[in-house]
Amino acid sequence: MFEDINDEIDSIGAQDPRAPIALHRPDLPFKKLDSPYYRIALRRVAAATRPRSYLEIGVKEGGSLAVVLDASGAVDRLVLCDFFTINEKKQGHRDRAETEISRRGFAGSVSWLDGSSTATVPTLTESFDLIGVDGSHRRSILAQDLRNVFPLLDIGGHIVVDDLSLFEDHRLAQVFDEFADTHKDQCTVVYRTTAAWPGVGVIRRDA
Length: 207
Fold this sequence. Notes:
207 residues; globular
């Protein structure tokens, strides 16, 4: 699933990994982002497994959500978590995310969780095939997010985590690694990189 991911990065013109990257691929529904690794990882997992349910922490303007919808073609249930109204910096993000959803003619169910994922995600009882985690950069919150979402992940499903190497000490990578090690009897790390800033990791639930 990820063997040639570095070749794909090279093919879209990635140079300085810490510089914004202009993407020239017409098949990708976004034009600029800090690193393409997270969205490419999401796209590859969604294309390979065709998830029907997707939980996303950190929706922003809907770019990664659009990638999942396009790649899967089978999603019929979305649960989207972010500070849609509470954080002034994110005013309008939900409107733009809704635009990405409507552009794709999505006719499934959409639930919006407005607020901290540490408070809203624990209210969920349904399970998911794919979960994207691109929320807080604080270790304690990522650790809690992973603890909260793992029980919601179907066996055979995947969690994709962004920003593992966002800071020099790779502080989120340590949280990711500790979680994977603690749950090694239940999950497999199918992809992980901190060499490519800001890093990404993918966990598959096995049991």
